[in-house]
Design brief:
about 120 residues; alpha/beta; Glutaredoxin; 5-stranded mixed sheet
Length: about 120
């Protein structure tokens, strides 16, 4: 039972597993490497788009995890299956390479980063 609690806790609260942390408005971003590019512009636009949704909660805060290059990516995929992005409560997992300067997520199967974050925010 203890092992199951540890597994679930690490899945839902992985904050301490990431080397880098940035805080901006309603977002905390966690990554294995320093974040390159203007992530603030992407987050501002995502917040603006999500704010147009009737289910958006302005009091909610989001933890974004850039899992590329961090062992947590494989751990999360083992527990919940592979995906380029996923939301779990207030966590947004971005499992592809996030290139903020190009507004891209992924390498071969690219998505628009801003729209992906917005989509996961309103889940």
């Amino acid at each position: 039972m203890f092992f199951l609690i540890v597994v679930i806790t690490l899945f839902i609260y992985p904050n301490h597993l990431f080397a880098h942390h940035e805080k901006y408005k309603k977002f905390s971003i966690y990554s294995g490497q320093p974040i390159k590019g203007n992530y603030r512009l992407i987050l501002d636009r995502s917040l603006e788009l999500a704010g147009k949704s009737e289910i958006f909660d302005a009091t909610y805060n989001y933890d974004i995890f850039l899992t590329e290059g961090v062992w947590y990516k494989k751990y999360a995929e083992t527990l919940s299956g592979p995906s380029l992005a996923r939301s779990i409560d207030n966590n947004i997992l971005l499992n592809g390479t996030a290139v903020f300067i190009k507004n891209e997520l992924g390498t071969s199967n690219k998505r628009e980063l801003m729209q992906t974050i917005t989509h996961e925010m309103v889940h």
